[in-house]
Amino acid sequence: MRIYLPEVRLKSGETADYKFEEDLSDCFHDFSDGGTLKLLVSVSCGGGMVVVSGNLEVSAAAICSRCLESFAHLSKTDFTEAFTVVNEMQVEATPDIIASETANMLTVTGNYLYLDEYIRQLIILAQDYSPLCKVECRGICAGCGTDLNKSTCRCSKDQNLIDVRLLKLKELNIDN
Ligand SMILES: [Zn+2]
Ligand SMILES: [Zn+2]
Fold first, then answer.
1. What is the CA(153)–ligand 1 centre distance, in A?
2. What's the pLDDT score for residue 94?
3. 7 or 163, which is more confident?
4. Centroid of ligand 2 to alpha carbon of 85 (angstroms)
5. Using CA atoms, how far apart are residues 7 and 9, in angstroms rounded to an integer?
């Protein structure tokens, strides 16, 4: 995912809009499970800066934190970033090196703005650490392991909501 800056500069003040659709596993080594990304981005140049704003949509396999089923998780992130144009170009700068400088220093060198590493970091930051397959997911019964989305079990009926502290007391009595 790169943007050819001379094309943006031709727009003189107006934004140039770009759209990328990629397979995650093609772009990033650490997303080998697959998934797709859709990136809409508006770019403008001026005052020694390249300003980028857009919307990132990622669909990737995730494990539901309640029922442990795999599902396609969709996440959306809006972003705006200003990259400072720097002139010194490293002799052996590969697109990978430039992309990581772009992300870590928020600088841009040469004719291309390489967005891959910046987008990779956005995806990681936007990651949901307790994804749910659906808001009303009922999860797994802690007692018997039944997936409560698919069937019901007898556990909750049998327990009749006994206070855990009382259970502890009951154990103590048995031991004595
Ligand atoms: Zn679930
Ligand atoms: Zn159960």
1. 17
2. 81
3. 7
4. 60
5. 5
